[in-house]
């Protein structure tokens, strides 16, 4: 099973991550998954930021949102 299939099998609809290669990102997006890349912080910080709509402050340095 490839990565995209494994992620889809888990029921994922939004994928929060740090660095991601374009090939994987595009495969996920083609499968209907929203990808929010270039995030930094602990898993709890990222989840909290997502839930309160504050991911911009967790974007990796040098990345424009």
Quick tags:
mainly alpha, Nucleotidyltransferase, domain 5, globular, NifB/NifX family molybdenum-iron cluster-binding protein
Describe the protein.
This is NifB/NifX family molybdenum-iron cluster-binding protein. InterPro entries: DiNase_FeMo-co_biosyn_sf. With 65 residues, the protein is mainly alpha-helical. The chain has a single domain (3-58), classed as Dinitrogenase iron-molybdenum cofactor biosynthesis domain (Nucleotidyltransferase, domain 5, 2-Layer Sandwich), CATH 3.30.420.130. It has 3 helices and 2 strands, in the order αβαβα. The protein has a two-stranded parallel ribbon. The longest helix has 10 residues, at 43-52. It is globular and about 35 Å long.
